[in-house]
Amino acid sequence: MAQEVSQINVNGVEIPVVFEKDASLPITSVQLVVKNAGSMEDGANEGIAKFLAGMLGEGTKEMGATVFAEELEFRAISLGAHTGIETLVFEVSALKEQFPYALGMLQKLLKSPNFSKGSFDKIKLLTLGMLSNKESDFDYIANLNLQKLIFENTPFAHAYSGDVKSIKALKLKDVENFYKERINLESLIIVAGGDIELDELKKLLLPVLSEIKHGKHRDMAYFDANKNAKELVVHKESEQAYIYFGAPFYMKSGDPEAYKAKVASFILGESGFGSRLMEEVRVKRGLAYSSYSRSSIGKSSSSFTGHLQTKNENLEEAKKVVAAEIKRFVDEGVTEDELAQAKRFLLGSEPLRNETLSQRLSRAFFEYYSGFELGHSKKQLEKIEALSLEDLNSFIKKHDEITALSFSVVTKREKP
C-alpha cells in the first residue's frame, strides 16, 4: 500500500500523520516527531536536547526506569526517544496485539517523565563518561572542530552531546523547562505504519496525544556555512593525521536542482572506490585507505564536507590533493562515463532503498518534512535518468563555493 498523509485533530490542532499500512508482518510502529526540539535548539545549555532524550529513556516518575523497562521487555515492546539536529523523536514499536499497551506506556511517559534527581544524576554521569571517552576519539575531535569552523556563530558550532563544562553546569530545572517549552502539539508530525488501519491508529493515538500541551509555532532558522576558508590544527599523540574538510553549499531544502547535487556528490566523493577523491587520494597516490565527501542539504543548513586519514608526514600533500581535485571537479566537470556509472548505481540500487516499511516511511516523512508531495523521490529518479552531461557540468561549475575549503586536522606535533 502506498503512503498517505492525513490529519488528526487534537485539542483544536491539526497534526499531520504520515502513514502506510503493511500487513506483511504483525508489527505496528509510530513516531512522534517534534520539530524545533533537536540539538540546534540547545542555546546556552549545550547538549540539553540529547540529555533530555536520555532522561526520557528512564521511564516514568511513578514506575522508575527498571520497572518501566521490565514491563516493555516482557511484551517485546521497543519504546524510546532520540534527538537529531532539528527534531526530537519518540518511537514505539510492538507486535500488533501489544500495540495498544505500548501506546498506553507512551501515554504514561508523556504524562509523567522520570524527571527525578536520581534519573538526572544517572544521565549526567553517563554523559560525562561518554564525553571523557571522546577525548581520545580523534575523528570526533576533528569533525567537531570542523563544525565550529564552518558554522561559526551558529547553533551548529557546538558538540551536540555538550562538553564536560556544559553538562556539569546543567540543572534538572533546565531539562524540565526545555521539555515544557519544546514538546507541544503545534510542533508534532506523526509517522506510523504496519499492521493496523489508519482510523484505528488515530483512535488509539488520541488519548496519548492529549497528554501533550499547546505551545508556540516556531519557524526554523536557516544558516549558511562559512565562506571564509579557515584551518584549525590540534596536536595529539596520533599515529595518523585525521583530516576533515568543509565548505558552503548554496542549496536549500526544496531546491528543484537537488537531484543534480545528488549525482554530482556521488561522483565526487560518495561512491566509494569509483569516486574522484578516492581515485586521486588512494588509487593514484596511496595517501589514504579511503576518502569521502558529501553534500548535505537541510531545512536548517546546507554544507559540503568530507574526511580522510593519512600518515602524519603526508598531511600537507593530502590536503593539497583534495583541494586541487575539488577545484578541478568544479572547473572541468565530469565525463560521460562517470555520469553513466552514477545513473546505473543510483537507479539500479533504488529497490534496495525501498525494501522495508521503515525505509519507506522514512522516505515519506522526509518528503513531507521537506515540503514535497509524496512520491517526490521517484520523480527525482526520473530526472536523474534524463540528466544530460551538459546540464550536470553547468550545475557543477555554478557551485564553485565548495572550493572555499576549511580544514580541521588532528595530527602529531612535529619534533623540533
Automatic annotation (TrEMBL):
<dbReference type="InterPro" id="IPR011765">
    <property type="entry name" value="Pept_M16_N"/>
</dbReference>
<dbReference type="InterPro" id="IPR050361">
    <property type="entry name" value="MPP/UQCRC_Complex"/>
</dbReference>
<dbReference type="Pfam" id="PF00675">
    <property type="entry name" value="Peptidase_M16"/>
</dbReference>
<keyword id="KW-0378">Hydrolase</keyword>
<dbReference type="GO" id="GO:0006508">
    <property type="term" value="P:proteolysis"/>
</dbReference>
<feature type="domain" description="Peptidase M16 C-terminal">
    <location>
        <begin position="170"/>
        <end position="344"/>
    </location>
</feature>
<dbReference type="Pfam" id="PF05193">
    <property type="entry name" value="Peptidase_M16_C"/>
</dbReference>
<dbReference type="GO" id="GO:0046872">
    <property type="term" value="F:metal ion binding"/>
</dbReference>
<dbReference type="InterPro" id="IPR007863">
    <property type="entry name" value="Peptidase_M16_C"/>
</dbReference>
<feature type="domain" description="Peptidase M16 N-terminal">
    <location>
        <begin position="17"/>
        <end position="155"/>
    </location>
</feature>
<protein>
    <submittedName>
        <fullName>Zinc protease-like protein</fullName>
    </submittedName>
</protein>
<dbReference type="InterPro" id="IPR011249">
    <property type="entry name" value="Metalloenz_LuxS/M16"/>
</dbReference>
<keyword id="KW-0645">Protease</keyword>
<dbReference type="GO" id="GO:0008233">
    <property type="term" value="F:peptidase activity"/>
</dbReference>
